[in-house]
Amino acid sequence: EDQVTQSPEALRLQEGESSSLNCSYTVSGLRGLFWYRQDPGKGPEFLFTLYSAGEEKEKERLKATLTKKESFLHITAPKPEDSATYLCAVQDATSGSRLTFGEGTQLTVNP
Amino acid sequence: DARVTQTPRHKVTEMGQEVTMRCQPILGHNTVFWYRQTMMQGLELLAYFRNRAPLDDSGMPKDRFSAEMPDATLATLKIQPSEPRDSAVYFCASGLVLPRSYNEQFFGPGTRLTVL
Questions:
Q1: Which of A18, A88, A79, A94 is nearest to A50 (CA)?
Q2: Domain that holds residue B51
Q3: CB contact under 8 A, A96 and B56
Q4: Chain A residues whose beta carbon lies within 8 Å of the beta carbon of residue B54
Q5: Is B45 at the interface with chain A, CB within 8 A?
Q6: What is the pLDDT of residue A1?
Q7: Contact A46 B31 (CB under 8 A)
């Protein structure tokens, strides 16, 4: 059974204070790892897909990296508008289009 | 701006009543997903369809939940009878799945269901 564990559960940063969120996963064969951002009262918003270990993707202040066991979402010089819950999900090569989500990291960036 | 739409956005009902949630996927997407999100369980996949055919409904309580795609522009999730434990936010997502591709899923705004 696929498992996704995100840490920390909650993270509070000062504006400009860079940090990283962790997503550890266990799958029989990784087809893809996905990062989403979710704002209160809204649906998850797609950020990145990573396919293989060593891959990196960037979008504004966010950079996602992938190893064989975990993924990191690095946030550089965050702003208050980066406050949200960040969700990680994996797609197993044997489970069709099913995504297994982690519990998320709730990020708060204070001005 | 293509996006997934869901109706209603909020629904309050009494235990035992039937609830129907609707979703319009992004035009051209061939796969539609239904998820449920609660504080306790997080985001869970209930079922998904490819080209309107159900592919996986293993996450869905079969006795009271049913999901259908009457046509390519409409997906429905029905609960009959509803129970208080069904209270959650229900999300629809859609994606374009092609052979040997990696398929992102795009989520709608959700239906917040409260069963009293």
A1: A88
A2: 5-97+104-115
A3: yes
A4: none
A5: yes
A6: 84
A7: no
Q: Is A40 on the interface with B (CB under 8 A)?
A: no
**Structural domains present in chain A:** 3-96 (2.60.40.10)
Q: Which residues of B touch A29 (CB under 8 A)?
A: none
Residues B53, A103, A2, B43, Cα dihedral to 10°:
-10
Which residue stretches of chain A have pLDDT < 50?
Answer: none
User: Higher pLDDT residue, B92 or B96?
Assistant: B92
Query: For residue B100, what pLDDT band results from cuts at 50, 70 and 90?
Result: low
CA triplet A78, B104, B11: central angle to 5 degrees?
A: 85
Count structural domains, chain B.
Answer: 1
pLDDT attached to residue B62: 87
Task: Return the CATH number at B89.
Answer: 2.60.40.10
Q: How far apart are CA A54 and CA A62, in angstroms?
A: 16
Give bridge partners of residue B36 from the DSSP assignment.
B44, B90
Question: Is residue B102's pLDDT more than 70?
Answer: no
pLDDT of residue A98: 87
List the one residue out of B37, B106, B94 whose CA is nearest residue A40. Answer: B37
